[in-house]
Protein kinase domain-containing protein (Propithecus coquereli), 496 residues
Amino acid sequence: MSLTSGPSPQPRGPPGLPGQARAAHSDGETPPRTSIYVQETDTPGGLLVTRGGNLRPTEAPAAAHPGEQNPPGPRCCLQVPGTESGEQTPQGAGVFSPPQERSGRGAAEAEGTPGPGAKPAMGPSLARRDEEDEAAGAPGLQQDKGPGARDSEPRKDCAAEGPGMAEAGRRLPPGAEAGSAVLDDGLAPPAPFEHRVVSVKETAVSAGYALCQHEVVGGGRFGQVHRCTEKSTGLPLAAKVIKVKSAKDREDVKNEINIMNQLGHVNLIQLYDAFESKSSFTLIMEYVDGGELFDRITDEKYHLTELDVVLFTRQICEGVRYLHQQYVLHLDLKPENILCVSRTGHQIKIIDFGLARRYKPREKLKVNFGTPEFLAPEVVNYEFVSFPTDMWSVGVITYMLLSGLSPFLGETDAETMNFIVNCSWDFDADTFEGLSEEAKDFVSRLLIKEKSCRMSATQCLKHEWLNDLPAKASGSRVGLKSQLLLQKYMAQRKWK
């Protein structure tokens, strides 16, 4: 199995306890172990996240192993009201080449979702998606965006500031009281260009783009990502340079390009251009400057609340829902592949489609790659994968956002995968204290070994934890930006 992983991980607590939550590891070679300690603040529902030193062992509830009466996550099929059993396959999806889709919040209203702490009920599988919401191009999901915005003055150097597409999330909206906390729950901004269907060019990248070789904004197993600028327009972009050594490497990159050509959604990074040379490919893509999601929330100056996690998770689920509507599996969802649009807002974009695959229900797909601690059981067991495979990864990411712990991380990759195939996890008593039952229920409906029992992205967006944001904001004394803007709008109408 071809796996990618970071430095040798160390589990949280004594080794060999499969139910103990393991601490999330960071990138880089043998960095000092850090943890995110979560404690209640004076603000109801608020969480304070600070960077700690070496992880200290804490006692957690004993893990329930397969066959025990009280497993840490539901083992049976959980049914969301309004869903029926059947094949989990979206209907009506076709080849895509429209403008970028803006995710609609109306499609994610809660519809009879079980209350917090509800016991799993034996019933039909969650496998089939709601046809009305999952069908590609469903009414209300797609909106045309305006003409692509380009900078009027060309950029002269690499240090030039990026476009102000994310500045809205950095300003207090009119009507916000001084000193009050405002959360921007709006949609992610679209790319500053129209959606494109890109063909690979064999000309030199330097003919049209100025790459900042010294400014590396990302990297991975493929190579590096550099800041770049389009010479003719001054448009700030990112250049992903992928080294290729074999014919298979080239086919993999072309597959990534073909998949990105299908994807036009505000929560998915957009492709602008592509070039091929003898030893590499260069993909020119949309540039965002907010950094990786987990780098952002682990900053010592950032105070994370459960409401923050709700907003981040909604955005992730919006992007994954669209992917699945287009019959695309990401297959490598992890914190490193989620970027923030800005350093203050809650908008994110999913990146890196290098391992993504086109899903064809009649052709059973198996894969043997991924990052160990985010792999679903069916990947570890080399079984068929489908849409629920991505949803498992969403569950792991959400667990980590809520707690700062990685639910399956072991001392070695082999131990990690053993925890995964046995679905050995629990809610660490210390770190999950004070978190809502809705949040725990959400995670429990994703980290289920039987893939047909996991919630789909659409069902996630209907879950009560991701809805009723005004009430959640009121409960935590945090005002949502959408509320403040609506108040201003209504006040202006009264004066007209």
The domain at 291-494 is CATH 1.10.510.10 (Transferase(Phosphotransferase); domain 1). DSSP finds eleven helices and 17 strands in the chain. The two ends are 66 Å apart (CA to CA). Residues 4-99, 102-179, 479-483 have pLDDT under 50 and may be disordered.
